[in-house]
Amino acid sequence: MKKVVVTGGAGFIGSHLAERLLNKGYEVLIIDNLATGRMVNIRDFEQSSHLTFEKIDVTDVLSVEKAVKGSTFVFHLAALADIVPSIQEPLRYHNANVNGTITVLEAARKAGVKKFVYAASYSCYGLPTVFPTPETAPISPMYPYALTKNLGEQYVLHWNKIYGLPCISLRLSNVYGPRSRTTGAYGAVFGVFLAQKLAGKPFTVVGDGTQTRDFTYVTDVVDAFIRAAESDKQGEIYNVGSGGTYSVKCLVGLLGGEVVHIPKRPGEPDCTYADITKIRQALAWSPEVPFDHGVQEMLKNIEMWRDAPVWEEKTIAVATKDWFAHLGRGNIQ
């Protein structure tokens, strides 16, 4: 059996990827320091004889090198997320998202892996002006999280160019699905809303809710990772999105419930909408899960948010306003 490594494999997307890889017959090693990942995310398959879990920080050079040795593919998803904490702790984010990426890249290079697939972010485009937004759009990170994810991507492509390590970077857009996080100052909107729904609280909608997001279902994202790894492509960047864009107001309508409007947050785009023409043509990948179906799947799994903290307006840190004030862009959703 081919051994593959999933860094951040106890996280939201990583756990779904690890589970799919097991089902495809791979020997899977999950590396996760559990800073944001949760063991509950892998409970449905953690007893598999083909799964190994190691609590390792991706900046731990020797441990990562030992873990990656003998691997065919490395999927690098381990990272710190969220806007506000990245503004407050930029060095911690740089260490995890940039230094951690270099550490895993070097381990993969020394191990001679066949493919390194990196989880990049649509946030690298900042406030794009072209929709759908292609991979050639200007890079303009608006906060340290977005910057560190893009720096990680640059290292990935550099390792491909200089060392010949076969790499692909996938720029993910607004991924949702079961196991998504419910907490954080830049909260995952589905988890936030479902936790509020279970608690009988109104949905806290930022602004008037007309802002749109390229909500992409997690199983479609997993398909993209595996197609990228199993392809003969390398040195490429691909957007991964739903092929559409949907308003928060539409999401609330599908979930059903009362709404409370809160102030718009600086630094967030009015629209995210990834152009996925390139990945459709190169990898024959297309999203399969319609938005309304994905929302229904979330509602079927709503019980997993039963004990989740309920997000409230006070979690919007003042730091974001301070950080974006100098941009002169006013209130941006």
Can you lay out the helices and strands and say which pair or pack?
Elements lengths: L2 E5 L4 H12 L3 E5 L19 E4 L6 H8 L4 E4 L6 H6 L1 H22 L3 E7 L22 H20 L3 E6 L2 E2 L12 H10 L4 E4 L5 E2 L2 E2 H13 L5 E5 L5 E2 H8 L3 E4 L14 H7 L7 H10 L18 H7 L8
Helix pairs in contact: 1-7, 2-4, 4-5
Describe this structure in words.
The chain folds into two domains: 3-175 and 216-240, NAD(P)-binding Rossmann-like Domain (Rossmann fold); 176-214 and 243-273 and 288-321, UDP-galactose 4-epimerase, domain 1. It is 37% helix and 16% strand. The chain has helices at residues 12-23, 61-68, 83-88, 90-111, 144-163, 189-198, 218-230, 248-255, 277-283, 291-300, 319-325, and strands at 3-7, 27-31, 51-54, 73-76, 115-121, 167-172, 175-176, 203-206, 212-213, 216-217, 236-240, 246-247, 259-262. A seven-stranded parallel sheet has the order 3-2-1-4-5-6-11, with helices on both faces. Strands 7-10 form a two-stranded parallel sheet. Strand 5, helix 5 (144-163) and strand 6 (167-172) form a beta-alpha-beta unit. Helix 1 crosses helix 7, helix 2 packs parallel to helix 4 and helix 4 packs parallel to helix 5 (144-163).
Question: Top keywords for this entry?
Answer:
333 residues; alpha/beta; Rossmann fold; UDP-galactose 4-epimerase, domain 1; two-stranded parallel sheet; 11 helices; 16% strand
Brief digest:
This protein has helices at 12-23, 61-68, 83-88, 90-111, 144-163, 189-198, 218-230, 248-255, 277-283, 291-300, 319-325, and strands at residues 3-7, 27-31, 51-54, 73-76, 115-121, 167-172, 175-176, 203-206, 212-213, 216-217, 236-240, 246-247, 259-262. It has eleven helices and 13 strands.
